[in-house]
Amino acid sequence: PRKRGEWGESKMVSRRDQRKTPSTQGRDMLRPSLARGALFDRLLILYTLFMFGSHLSISKGLDTAARNAKALGFEAVQIFTKNQRQWKTKPLDPAAITDWQQAIEELGWQHQTVSHASYLINLASPDDELWHKSIDLMTEETERCEALGIPFLVHHPGAYTTSDAATGLGRIALAYKSLCKRTAGYATVFCLEDTVGSGSNLGRTFEELAELRQLILDQTGAPHRVGFCFDTCHAHAGGYDLSTRAGGEAVLAEFDRLCGLDNLKVIHLNDSVGEVGSRKDRHAHIGEGTIGGGTAARVLRESGFAAVVNHPRLKAVPMILETPKEPTEAGTPMDAVNLRRLRGIQDA
């Protein structure tokens, strides 16, 4: 894994340093030619729309992923900033950074982009070599988000494997101590994602997530750097029944009581192949799993999805689809189909 400082300043620059350079002084200010449209879009999103997005491929470029999201009708996007199946990473191309930032500025999406960290990372591992390797890779993930101006970095808490839950939670908190020290001053927020709790994976219950965040705060004293990501499939398969709207409202109330909705930075909107409490992490299209119970709007309006996409305190939270990508028989991208289903259950 990369050692600290291996990337030169010319290739990897923090957001603080970027604002000091002439080429990026205006990245927090809309260019005059774009100001009216981008500002209007931003205000429209903040005050009238919920921010729906999808996890999209960067195979044709980072900026292309963002533009594709817009073309599909979304107001947000989630990406991997690297190959998530590999430990080694290439430095971000400065041109790719510039193209991404220009696309995000034009779209007015400075506050609604998300990155998902590599699944290889295990900050709870009792194995010192894997643990340190995971911290190194998580640091790289954070540096990439900071360079791109991506505000939210989602990751799975980790699995304790041969130790126990308490030890695993402690290991994650210690990893965060190192991580926050390495990335001091960064704006990127780490988002702990709930899991189905299979095997020794941590983060299934809201109680455990809340405990973990507090342990991290005890180690770092940085509450502004630590938030949550709520995945509907994971919650449902993990034991929180989202199959009814009333159930969804109760689940969100419980999350608010234990974790705080103000700390919820990202939502993953996925239906679940598995039944409630099945511990099966298998995503389904909206309405085609055990949460939605059907694709008709009248059915979905009675599901937990309706509770989520109509909650007034979640209007500023990016809601990201992580559903299968195959097109319909008519060739319509399923992202567009899922988005239409979600829009169709929003209260007037």
UniProtKB/TrEMBL annotation:
This is Endonuclease IV. It comes from hydrothermal vent metagenome. PANTHER family: APURINIC-APYRIMIDINIC ENDONUCLEASE (PTHR21445:SF0), ENDONUCLEASE IV ENDODEOXYRIBONUCLEASE IV (PTHR21445). Its EC number is 3.1.21.2. Keywords: DNA damage, DNA repair, Endonuclease, Hydrolase, Metal-binding, Nuclease, Zinc. Belongs to the AP endonuclease 2 family. Residues 1-29 are annotated as: Disordered. Its cofactor is Zn(2+). It is an enzyme of class 3 (hydrolase). Pfam families: AP_endonuc_2 (PF01261). Residues 67-308 form the Xylose isomerase-like TIM barrel domain. Residues 1-20 have a biased composition (Basic and acidic residues). GO terms for molecular function: deoxyribonuclease IV (phage-T4-induced) activity; DNA binding; DNA-(apurinic or apyrimidinic site) endonuclease activity; phosphoric diester hydrolase activity; zinc ion binding. GO terms for biological process: base-excision repair.
